[in-house]
Amino acid sequence: MKEKIIEALKIMGFIPVPIDDWAYEFEFEGLSYLYMLNDDEDCLNISVPLGAKLTDRNADKFYDVVNAVNKDLFYVKAYKRDDDHIWLSYELEYNEENKEELDMIFARMIHALNHAARFVYRNIDDTFFDEDEQEN
User: Fold this and answer.
1) Which of 32, 37, 40 lies closest to 15, judged by CA?
2) Measured between alpha carbons, how far is 34 from 65 in angstroms, rounded to an integer?
3) 88 within 8 A of 117, measured Cβ to Cβ
4) pLDDT 10s digits, 47-86
5) 101 falls in which pLDDT band (50, 70, 90)?
């Protein structure tokens, strides 16, 4: 299944680059998307790590934004990873019996993740970025 997914991404014009043995990264509209490898080949997960970082100055707002994504947006889930950044994830089950083409599924997933990233960036401030990483 992994090969089929990588091929579908290439056909869509993306350049998936392997990251060790846990993901493939591809870029779209300024965001890095990760096709996350999983032991369950029927589990299709695309994640987006954001630059928004948990700090002592923004803890309440950080969790407010994560909760707002999880409450208000469909399909996409936000969470804090070990690196203290907000990550977005869209996960679904896909198998060979699925009638929908992978390119249509990816288009929907990428659109939803892009929308969620914009939602997060609209709802945060400078306290979410290291001084050398601040967004303009």
Assistant:
1) 32
2) 21
3) yes
4) 999 999 999 999 999 999 999 999 999 999 999 998 899 9
5) confident
Which residue in the block uniquely carries the two structure tokens 């996409």?
Answer: 76
Question: What separation in angstroms does the CA of 2 have from each of 22, 49, 107, 118, 123?
Answer: 12, 21, 17, 29, 35
Q: How do residues 3-23 score in pLDDT, each as one tens digit?
A: 989 999 999 999 999 999 999
Of 54, 44, 29, 58, which Cα lies nearest the Cα of 116?
A: 29
User: Which tokens in the block code for residue 76?
Assistant: 């996409």
**d(C-alpha 45, C-alpha 41), whole Å:** 10
Cβ atoms within 10 A of the Cβ of 127, count? 15
Please state whether the predicted TM-score (pTM) of the whole model is above 0.70. Answer: yes
Instruction: Give me the residue label for tokens 């290439």.
Output: 10
Are the C-beta atoms of residues 93 and 123 closer than 8 Å to each other?
no
Cβ neighbours of residue 8 closer than 8 Å, sequence gap 6 or more = 102, 103, 106
How crowded is residue 78: how many other Cβ atoms within 10 Å of its Cβ? 24
Question: What are residue 23's DSSP bridge partners?
Answer: 19, 36
If residue 117 lies in a helix (H) or strand (E), which one and from where to where? helix 102-122
